[in-house]
Design brief:
With 272 residues, this protein is α/β, with parallel strands linked by helices. The chain is 11% helix and 20% strand. It has 2 domains: 7-30 and 84-269, no CATH class; 34-79, no CATH class.
Amino acid sequence: MARHAQPSARKSLSRRSKAVGGLALTTLVGTALWAWPASGDDHDSLADGRNGAPKTAAAPDTAGAPKAAAHTARDAAARRIPGLSDAVRKQIPANTRQVLVVTGKARDSYESQVILYTRAEGSDVWRPGRIWAAHNAARGWTDDHHYGDLRSPEGVYSLTDAGGRLPAPDGTKLPYDHNRNFVANGTGVEGEPLAGAFDYVIAINYNRVPGTSPLDQERPDGATKGGGVWLHMDHDGPTQGCVSLKPDAMRELLRTLDPGLHPVVVMGPAAR
């Protein structure tokens, strides 16, 4: 969103998550994600079965071992969300079964893409959904977000609350504040109209109190760290700090994100 939002609904600024923890995701994408250690070798018995005579250990299968190791690495990688470093993966709570990954085109770019990954109960396999185009802040990303810097905060943040000027789509599971105060006034960073930008919003728990309306103004880390960072409707331009998606994507997210699955968003730029 742009610097148009009224004080009660300032939407695109910034904050550091208390619920999950804000991580500086400078290694968010492309950091040796596929170099997983191979499993331990299996060793033969030292008897060859003839008269019980000992035998020397067989020479390593130099042809089969690399293939087995590569297969193991591929299997492990296939179960993980691609593009995330080990450090980022460790920030995702163990009980989370929905991860919304927002990947910026570059550190200073306001273009990004969004994919929702889900896993079944008891499974460690993450399944990707559709890929959506999105916008982030006008100046890209930062791991030290401040009010007015026109950068989106990198990190791993929980998603617990939603709202909007329009009624919640049928099937919405997150707590939803239907409120006429979700209004974006003025124009965006590039002069584009903002009408309808807050028809649907999902609060990103950066510098906010989970379990409250997205309109809540409390900033646990102080006003200078920004706040009001949302997923909201796209207005065909960069935001002040939020992530904006087309209406169909917002409606699908509202119908899909389930507080019982402890959804989080992982957001930041692709590795350069």
